[in-house]
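Title: [Solved] GlxA family transcriptional regulator 3D structure

Original question kept below for reference.
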Amino acid sequence: MSERPASAADVAAETILFLLIPDFSMIAFTSAIEPLRIANRLSGKQLYTWRLVSRDGKPVAASNGIAIQVDAAIGECEPGSSGSMPVIVLCGGLGSEHYQDKEVFAWLRRWDRRGAQVGALCTGAHVLARAGLLDGHRCTIHWENLPGFMEAFPDIQVTSDLYEIDRNRFTCSGGTAALDLMLNRIALAHGDELATKVSEQCIVDRIRGPHDRQRMPLRVRLGVHHPKLIQAVEIMEANIEEPLSQESLARYIGLSRRQLERLFRRHLGRTPAQYYLETRLERARHLLYQTDMPIMSVACATGFVSASHFTTCYRQMFGKTPRAERVRAA
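Solution (posted by the thread starter after getting help):
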């Protein structure tokens, strides 16, 4: 995982500024900070120090409603002419895709110009992108926000990996993936042995790599193991904007349309057309919540040729119109 690191005695403590924005993900935040604490304890040295920062120095409530006291406002943590360069970690969560704060964006850019590593957890990648800090960089984001991010920032290379490290940028899909990201950083700075010991303290049996999948395999999510069914669902999920006909789908997986329908009814309790429609409408719902795309654009992005058909299908599935869903999201 890493080359021979410098000994802990020779390495100055790395300072990390955790910038908390409203409704940040508590699980991603604690998964990132706890490995640092454990690394300090196991090494017997202060390898890491950290400060919690908010825009105005006031407590910030996480998405679970728990408010966290911070150490400083961003104005008290400006780049100086001396001292070690901290790592900046923006902690995002629910609603980060709509976060707008020019002062925060400018603060992040000032640290970037000084050469600081700037990263984000969970949906914080939206904030970095809006600040212009992911242009020309590879990034990742939580799987649920991936479609919305791709629509909002089509020129940014985004992946579905657990975490991405691209030069002086790092992003993390959220949840416990933040733990794997920090274990990777610990291994690079202080060796695999310490990272493994920290992992054991966290009751984690292995350190996942950046390219491990975010989501459970389809066979686990669906509770089925039929290879033809899994293949059909994978094809559906990859063809949302331009849905395939049932005849084409059956042909791709080597079945007749009648066989395909029997397969879906037996294992999923619905027809392929019903399952496909539900998948597209779930994607539409994510886009309504996570983007400012016009409703007609959301309809087109999920394979509907008319707004009226989209509205009818959406109301039948969710009990409200797309417009009402957008109002609720706002």
